[in-house]
């Protein structure tokens, strides 16, 4: 059946109606793929859906669709250039090479500390780029940019001289895209937004930071207020976190922030999503940030951040992450106590030979050799007769239902009842 499909496509592409066929989605041994077919070429190839979802997420974060009109004057122009582009710091050029080699189109340039991936030839846009973003939708406001961009590219499909009417339509589409670069959004796409693990990985590769607030690990996404629909969908997908609004500074658009900093949310909700078949699915240098950040999460989870040796290692790891890892930011390390990762790993091995300040019992953290829970700002739920009530602390719960904090803690650890109450951590 698959052989017949390829033969049928090749026959179509050897006729004068070549340009009527774009691409076909198919399923090979349970793996979703997109079949790419190019005019006058027998070299058809498939792209995995997982890669496409990652690329769409990465484009939502870092990509752009542009129309450049040369000699625009009096509702006409001489030339139009269509460009799909991703621009990154030059240290991340390998991920652009990975994209280019997988898509089998485009080119890369370097300039002033930046690496840029471009696709601007008509066939690649018509038969590779546009089918990809029709196969898996963009989830951000860039969806609207793409729709206008794709319409403009279609007007040039036959590669003939553009009529005055088509030129007017392209000018209109370019104006729409320029307007959308500000605050204006044509309409809601909430019903089109589909968050998947691989899309999220691509978006995180472009937008997220794995960092800390003092010695507390945190994960943060920040964007323009017009991405509010998207951020709410991401929060729903993660099943945790809050989307916060920040008022705008002068001449700046208001922003939204999605931040996770509760250790249970990080370990239980976020971190598992960054793996597939045992491998980290991030592809930019955020992959390295993530692996180093996991060391910080582990130090924090076990309480080593509360002692001097742990604080020293914590601070040393941070100097290998985010802005400090960029080759263009070497000046930031001046006067810093920078040590190699080999030294850091040796120090961590020695540190882990000592008892951790916290000990873990039934997935709860306690100060070692005590029955005192480590505060997580976790809420307590008291359940009785199929009715539940949530409290901000054990003390608040104990006071309200007149049960000792000691018994509530014992119930949390053992899972037993007390006076017909069951207690769980939220």
Automatic annotation (TrEMBL):
First and last residue of the signal peptide: none
Top-rank taxon, per record: Eukaryota
GO cellular component: mitochondrion
Record domain Homing endonuclease LAGLIDADG: where: 55-153, 200-296
Pfam families: LAGLIDADG_1
Name the UniProt record assigns to this protein: LAGLIDADG intron encoded protein
Keywords from the UniProt entry: Mitochondrion
MF terms in GO: endonuclease activity
Organism per entry: Fusarium vanettenii (strain ATCC MYA-4622 / CBS 123669 / FGSC 9596 / NRRL 45880 / 77-13-4) (Fusarium solani subsp. pisi)
PANTHER family with a match to the protein in the record: INTRON-ENCODED ENDONUCLEASE AI3-RELATED, LAGLIDADG ENDONUCLEASE
Gene3D superfamilies: Homing endonucleases (3.10.28.10)
